[in-house]
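Summary of Year 1 activities. Much of the first year was spent building the evaluation harness for sequence design. The harness presents a backbone, in tokenized form, and records the residue chosen at every position. We chose the following record to illustrate the format because it has been used consistently in internal testing since the harness was completed.
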């Protein structure tokens, strides 16, 4: 009889074989050492991604057609055999000791069912010029050097006990972009669940040099802005149209006043939110 893995590491991905190769190169050796299984949940078929998964010894679960990251997460979790699910994104790099810190933190705290660790930006092209007054233009999380309870962690670096997933239910597959994991965590917390931040279990959130340009980051930020507005509307907290206009104007002022190229990326997100707000009015 096969031994139950210490954890099932689930990686949703869609046609990003080059990113996935870096992620698996950092994760697979740790998984082998600590007897965890690695599952690549492929959102729509892709030969290159399948080859990368096989090269690193990961199990492949494929959705026949693209349905979104949450659908891929659910499919990966359904195929997992461990009582602990570790979710990561396909664009992270896990430093040595990451998985050990995550497993140790989970084992030491049986009263919590959801955990997460730091997510630090790694813009390999250097990224846009920043005045230092704003966060990196990709998802990060840093709550300091001490373990602590928190409201949310992000699915780029998140662990959950299967008991919580079975009780709360799957990730909402109608949500794309902003709010994908937040919705699930809200349901979990509403039922009395607790979330623990593990300071020692950090990963790096990568962007290659070509994806670190102002143009590439702004395009991604615009798309995120649209999904963020939809998520706020779903929660009933979307600001009025004048609020979105004010935010966009503030980003433009910041960019010009501070000569901050990162302000262009922030402005792109604000523009995406405004575009979505205007679309709402036409519906």
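For this record, the design step produced the sequence shown next.
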């Amino acid at each position: 009889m096969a031994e139950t893995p210490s954890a099932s590491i689930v990686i949703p991905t869609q046609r990003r074989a080059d990113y996935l190769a870096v992620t698996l190169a950092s994760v697979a050796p740790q998984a082998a050492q600590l007897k965890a299984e690695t599952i690549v949940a492929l959102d729509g078929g892709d030969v290159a991604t399948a080859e990368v998964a096989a090269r690193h010894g990961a199990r492949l679960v494929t959705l026949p057609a693209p349905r979104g990251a949450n659908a891929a997460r659910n499919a990966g979790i359904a195929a997992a055999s461990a009582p602990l699910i570790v979710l990561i994104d396909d664009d992270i790099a896990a430093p040595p000791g990451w998985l050990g810190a995550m497993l140790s933190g989970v084992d030491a705290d049986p009263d919590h069912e959801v955990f997460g660790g730091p997510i630090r930006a790694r813009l390999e092209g250097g990224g846009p010029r920043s005045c230092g007054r704003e966060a990196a233009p990709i998802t990060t999380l840093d709550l300091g050097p001490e373990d602590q309870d928190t409201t949310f962690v992000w699915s780029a670096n998140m662990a959950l006990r299967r008991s919580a997933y079975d009780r709360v239910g799957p990730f909402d597959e109608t949500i794309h972009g902003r709010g994908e994991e937040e919705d699930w965590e809200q349901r979990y917390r509403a039922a009395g669940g607790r979330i623990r931040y593990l300071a020692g279990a950090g990963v790096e959130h990568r962007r290659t040099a070509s994806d670190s340009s102002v143009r590439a980051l702004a395009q991604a930020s615009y798309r995120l802005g649209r999904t963020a507005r939809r998520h706020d509307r779903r929660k009933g907290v979307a600001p009025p149209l004048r609020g979105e206009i004010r935010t966009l104007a503030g980003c433009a002022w910041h960019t010009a006043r501070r000569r901050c190229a990162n302000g262009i990326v922030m402005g792109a997100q604000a523009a995406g939110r405004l575009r979505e707000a205007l679309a709402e009015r036409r519906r």
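Residues 213-282 form one domain. Quantitative recovery figures across the full test set are reported in Table 2.
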